[in-house]
Amino acid sequence: APEKRLSIHQRNYHKTLSEALLVKFPATGWLMGTAFLTQAAEHFVCERPPAAPCIAEYGAEFRAYLSQEPGSELAPYLKDFVELEWCVGQVAIALDHPPVAAEEFSGIDPDILPNTFLTLQPGLHFLEARWPVDELMTLYLTDTAPDQFELTSNNVRIEVRGARGQFHLSRLDKAEFTFRKSIAGGYSIGDAAEFAMESSADFNPGQALAVLIAAGFITGI
User: Fold this and answer.
1) Cα-based torsion angle of the residue sequence 110, 187, 212, 106 in order, rounded to the nearest 10 degrees
2) Are 203 and 180 in contact (CB under 8 A)?
3) What is the value of pTM for the model shown?
4) In 3D, which of 64, 88, 174, 173 has the Cα closest to residue 137?
5) 116: left (phi over 0), alpha (psi -120 to 50) or beta
6) Could you give the dihedral angle defined by the CA atoms of residues 27, 28, 33 and 37, in that order, rounded to the nearest 10 degrees?
7) Which of 167, 88, 78, 181 has its CA nearest to residue 128?
8) If you write DSSP's letter for every residue of the chain in order, what string do you get?
9) Which of 9, 22, 34, 191 has a CB 3.0–4.6 Å from the CB of 187, allowing a cystine?
10) What tens digit of pLDDT does each residue of 113-160 get?
11) What is the largest CA-CA distance in the chain?
12) Nearest-angstrom CA–CA distance, 3 and 66
C-alpha cells in the first residue's frame, strides 16, 4: 500500500535528522544521558523540520529547545553548556584566513584608527555564561570522571578559537571580552574600546589591539 511505502521514507527522514542532531551534540549526550538527548531530538524533528536544504546547518534552534525539554530543569547549567558545544562545533569546522600584518596598521592615521572597523577570524566565538561550563567541557574532552564534582554558579566569559578540527577554550576578563566581542560584532575600534573601559578603567586599548594583531586574529581592515 502507498501509505506503508511512504512510512518507510518518513522513518528514514526522522532518523536521519535525529542522528544529525546527536552527532552535533555528543557532549550534551554525555552530560544529560543518551536517552534524554535522543528523546529531545525526536521531538524537535517533528516540531521543527529543516527550513534550509543543507542538513549541516540544521540544529541551531535545538540549543534553546533542549533547555525546555522535560528533565532539563535538573541541570540549570544545560543552556550554557549547549551554547558552548555549539560554538566548539562551529569553530572546529572553520577555515583560517590570512591575518593582517602589523605593518598594515602603521600606515593608519592615529586620528582615524578609532573609527576603523576590523574583521576577525571566522573561527572565533565569544560566550558569556552564568555557569563555568568550560570546566564541564574539559571533563568531557579529557574523558575524566571524578568521584565528585561541584559546579557553582559563576559568570565566566569564554573565548572559543578553532579551525580545521582544532579548538581552544580561554577565559577572558570582562574588559578584554567586551572589546573582542564588540569588534567581532561590527563595532569600530573606538566604540569597542569605550565599551571595554566602562567595564574597567584600567583597560588599555592599544595593548588589547596589539594582542589581537600578534595572535593573528585580524583578517581585514
Assistant:
1) -20
2) no
3) 0.89
4) 88
5) beta
6) -130
7) 181
8) -HHHHHHHHHHHHHHHHHHHHHHH-HHHHHHH-HHHHHHHHHHHHHHS--SSS-GGGTTTTHHHHHTTSTTGGG-TTHHHHHHHHHHHHHHHT--PPPPPPTHHHHTS-TTTGGG---EE-TTEEEEEESS-HHHHHHHHHTT---S--------EEEEEEEETTEEEEEE--HHHHHHHHHHHTT--HHHHHHHHHHH-TT--HHHHHHHHHHTT-EEE-
9) 191
10) 999 999 999 999 999 999 999 999 999 999 887 888 888 999 999 999
11) 75
12) 32
Contacts of 44 (CB under 8 A, 6+ apart): 21, 61, 62, 65
The three three-digit cell numbers of residue 49, written as one number: 523540520
Question: Nearest Cα to 25, choosing from 95, 77, 88, 70?
Answer: 88
Position 189: which residue type?
Answer: I
Phi and psi dihedrals of 15, rounded to 5? -65, -45
What the block records as the C-alpha cell of 33 is 544521558
C-alpha cell at 24: 552535533
Angle at 88 between CA 30 and CA 147, to 5 degrees: 35
Cα–Cα distance for residue pair 52/209, rounded to 1 Å: 38
What is the four-CA torsion angle of 87, 201, 187, 95, rounded to 10 degrees?
A: -30
Contact call for residues 81 and 137 (beta carbons, < 8 A) = yes
Amino acid, res. 75: A
